[in-house]
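Encode chain A's predicted structure.
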Amino acid sequence: MTKKKFSLSDYSQYMVVVSIVLVFGIFSVLNPNFVSAYSLQNMMVEVSPLVLLACGLSFIIFTGGIDLGSGAMVSATCVISGLYVTRFGNGIIPVMLIIGAVLGLLNGTIVTKLKIPSFIVTLCTQNLWAFIALTLCPNGSVAIDLKLRKTLKWMTAKAGGVPVIFYFAIAAVVILFIFQQLTPSGRAIFAVGANVRAARLAGLDTDKAQIMAFTVSGACSALAGALYAYKQLSAVPTIGDSLTLSAIASIALGGTSMAGGRGSVIRTAIGVVTITAITSGLNMMGVNPLWKDIIIGIILIGAVYLNSDTKGRDIIIK
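Encoded structure for chain A:
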């Protein structure tokens, strides 16, 4: 009998649980205020929009693709939400959901019908989303009218000591998990990531599965943009500049393979909490904010390495 060679990648699915325990343990020792009620409530507010963004983006990565423009889409929809919430009120949330789904559908259609790699398509459309954000807000952030702020405060208000926005994020994760596990479309998305040729031979419409992944991701990104507008009470054209890196790092930390076919939105959500806890802990310790993206980048490299296929399949981006 051949003895199986030990590989860290075999245990990557447990990495996110170990990471979150270590992060909370280390920072709570360094600063006891890290786990205070006030600090945890603030962290819940911070983590909620990013959870939506990362969990939506997970579906594209489940197919083996990537969306480099998801952060820019958050910026665009945050601006649209902040500027037009005076007209639509809380109805801006379903409006953003529809807009995001349409933008995601556009990305997915270009990728599948023109057979262009997803990182090329989204690298280009990223500039379009950024253009929309900066055109609508050419002079920087625009605050939402003071008269309307009381109407929007419900999203960051607390119910049972927990911010409503966090309940919103949890509900979204549950819906996405059900979609991932219990629907034919969710299973088809994983099949495409695992082996697109085998999926075609099995009779699956692989183009439809990829388009669905982009549509779900677009809807979640736009919803995240609306939540940032509610949270900031303003339209911020640069809010998503660093979010794509944080989202991908969270997904990788959650044990999702960059080649697709393996992952979970639940573990992605835990990864987001871990990444947010790291940045919050560093801020509380007074670490220079410039180090944040460097540290997240290191985490991403390490997570991708641990999740990588020893045969090199994970370098393929569809």
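DSSP finds 13 helices and four strands in the chain.
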